[in-house]
């Protein structure tokens, strides 16, 4: 029975080629170049695939860019004027284009934006006088590493590995390193910690800083990923009261924020630092390259800050989508360790095997869904990092991982498939692999019938069974409950299934006149709630293009096991 599993490869490839959120982008393969001082970054992985379906390698918001903010950027480009001029030398009309947002320097100061950010972070617009903006957090991290008092730097000794930009910036500034924070003039903490997902609540991190930072030192606390914590994120990070109290002890705390992750705008680049005092902000401004933030980045962030509904969706959807991914990956790989807080925008996964991590990384690239292999940049070869993405996007990567697992279990022998009935092509979405625990039965089974089916199959020299038919949206079993029990009894975990568009009008729940009280909504609802119906409550039919009503099992290809 082991070789009973085989995916409809063509159907899977077809689905993977058409993501919902954005058009398919095609990239030329290129060999990455190493630059001195440049940190290895997962964002480069999208350029390693021929056909990008969804990027799981960077920890941006799964909702994608803020719609209102995208519109704000577009408005800056609206209405460029084309002017006619007379060239006195050529004696001919010449066209000149005017677009203020492109041709003029942006404002050095943007008080409305500064007030918005200060209110977002602290609930107090007066904190704006302590803010400095930069071309992404990376520019500001580099600036802080150069501006801090001379001496060694210390990364968070409580975590195994953290965002490497701080190490790069401090090393390039000529600083040595120490594992003892009391000996450091600059301490770098990332909280929540990217990539491991560790997080210290306010009391813990403030207590640690009080116990370990020496007078005269700077403490950099990167809170870029804190915004995913929920509407109470302001109460969970380092408090303004604590920052002020540390200033009196000559310990200066700088809070770093990258806006490119929470608002999914890595292509625009904008970050901020909330300094402990206005004087420290002014000293950093004196060292900063002017005009480092574009008008487009400012307009985007301003509009994003004003769209509260986007954040509310983020807080609602991200934990649910993360749980969806973790649940399915745990079923597929029960020995893997899944780390990080449940509200974070990524999953840190220890596969326990360098070879497995490499193969998972290659599998993800091959299906157009790049992930981050922690061997690159973090020196953790058994670990991979997956960004949280929508269930539809994850389904493409999940199918690829199911195929990988079935091949690893020697379930990839060639199968023969029967033909389907002549039905509207929109009825069938394709044949794909599914994990048995992901399926949702809507009916109970007859025990004696399941046992007879097992006996029947056991005596066959070549075992042939129709595939299970499932609803494409909720993975509800439409036909094949007894076959599903057979697969479970055989110890199978990954099986092929025909995925159908259950809402299509050519699919009927019961023949005309039989149990008219049962409808599709009841079938889906009973399965999703786990309240299964009695055996044989439904008898699904499909209408052929000629108008005949046929048992829906005609849609199931015959999955034949190769005889041993």
Radius of gyration: 29 Å
Which descriptor suits the 3D outline? elongated
Taking the alpha carbons of the first and last residues, their distance comes to: 10 Å
Structural class by SSE content: alpha+beta
Biggest β-sheet strands, sense, barrel: 6 strands, mixed
What portion of residues is helical?
Answer: 25-40%
Contiguous runs where pLDDT drops below 50 for at least 5 residues: 1-37, 411-419, 560-564
> What is the number of strand segments?
23
Number of helices: 18
Mean pLDDT: 85
How would you write the strand order of the largest sheet? 5-10-9-8-7-6
Residue share in β-strands: 15-25%
Q: Identify the quaternary structure here.
A: single chain
Organism: Durusdinium trenchii
InterPro entries: Aminotransferase_I/II_large (IPR004839), ParB/Sulfiredoxin_sf (IPR036086), PyrdxlP-dep_Trfase (IPR015424), PyrdxlP-dep_Trfase_major (IPR015421), PyrdxlP-dep_Trfase_small (IPR015422)
Protein name: Aminotransferase class I/classII large domain-containing protein
Domain Aminotransferase class I/classII large: 61-320
Keyword list:
ParB/Sulfiredoxin_sf; 564 residues; alpha+beta; 23 strands; PyrdxlP-dep_Trfase_small; 18 helices; disordered N terminus; Aminotransferase class I/classII large domain-containing protein; 4-stranded antiparallel sheet; Aminotransferase_I/II_large
């Amino acid at each position: 029975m082991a070789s009973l599993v085989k995916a409809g490869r063509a159907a899977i490839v077809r689905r993977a080629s058409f993501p919902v959120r954005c058009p398919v982008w095609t990239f030329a393969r290129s060999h990455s170049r190493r630059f001195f001082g440049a940190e290895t970054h997962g964002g480069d992985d999208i350029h390693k695939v021929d056909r990008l379906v969804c990027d799981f390698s960077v920890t941006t918001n799964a909702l994608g860019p803020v719609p209102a903010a995208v519109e704000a950027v577009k408005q800056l480009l609206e209405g460029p004027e084309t002017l006619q001029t007379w060239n006195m030398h050529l004696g001919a009309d010449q066209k000149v284009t005017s677009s203020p947002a492109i041709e003029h320097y942006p404002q050095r100061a943007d008080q409305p934006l500064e007030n918005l950010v200060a209110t977002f972070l602290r609930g107090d617009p007066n904190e704006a006088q302590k803010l400095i903006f930069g071309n992404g957090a990376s520019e500001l991290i580099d600036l802080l590493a150069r501006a801090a008092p001379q001496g060694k730097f210390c990364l968070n000794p409580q975590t195994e590995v953290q965002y490497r930009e701080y190490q790069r910036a401090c090393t390039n500034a000529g600083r040595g390193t120490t594992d003892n924070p009391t000996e450091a003039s600059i301490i770098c903490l990332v909280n929540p910690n990217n990539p491991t997902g560790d997080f210290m609540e306010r009391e813990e991190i403030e207590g640690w800083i009080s116990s370990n930072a020496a007078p005269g030192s700077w403490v950099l606390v990167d809170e870029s990923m804190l915004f995913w914590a929920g509407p109470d994120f302001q109460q969970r990070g380092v408090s303004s009261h604590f920052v002020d109290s540390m200033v009196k002890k000559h310990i200066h705390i700088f809070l770093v924020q990258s806006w490119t992750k929470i608002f999914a705008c890595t292509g625009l680049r904008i970050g901020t630092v909330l300094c402990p005092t206005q004087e420290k902000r002014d000293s950093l401004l004196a060292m900063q390259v002017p005009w480092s933030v574009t008008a487009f980045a400012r307009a985007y962030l301003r509009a994003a800050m004003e769209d509260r509904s986007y954040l509310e969706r983020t807080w609602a959807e991200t934990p649910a989508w993360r749980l969806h991914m973790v649940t399915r990956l745990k079923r597929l790989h029960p020995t893997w360790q899944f780390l990080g807080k449940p509200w974070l925008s990524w999953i840190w996964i220890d596969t326990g095997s360098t070879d497995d991590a490499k193969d998972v990384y290659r599998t993800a690239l091959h299906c157009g869904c790049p992930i981050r292999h922690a061997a690159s940049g973090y020196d953790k070869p058994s670990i991979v990092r997956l960004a949280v993405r929508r269930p539809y996007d994850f389904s493409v990567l999940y199918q690829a991982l199911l195929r990988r697992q079935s091949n690893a279990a020697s379930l990839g022998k060639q199968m023969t498939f029967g033909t389907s009935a002549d039905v509207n092509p929109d009825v069938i979405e394709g044949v794909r692999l599914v994990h048995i625990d992901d399926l949702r039965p809507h009916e109970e089974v007859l025990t004696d019938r399941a046992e007879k089916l097992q006996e029947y199959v056991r005596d066959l020299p070549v075992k042939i069974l129709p595939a299970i038919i499932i609803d494409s949206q909720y993975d509800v079993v439409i036909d094949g409950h007894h076959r599903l029990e057979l697969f479970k009894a055989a110890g199978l975990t990954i099986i092929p299934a025909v995925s159908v568009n259950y809402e299509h009008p050519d699919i009927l729940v019961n023949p005309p006149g039989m149990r008219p009280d049962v409808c599709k909504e009841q079938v889906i609802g009973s399965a999703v709630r786990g309240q299964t119906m009695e055996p044989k409550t439904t008898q699904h039919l499909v209408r052929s293009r000629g108008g005949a009503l046929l048992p829906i099992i005609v849609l199931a290809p015959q999955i034949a096991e190769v005889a041993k």
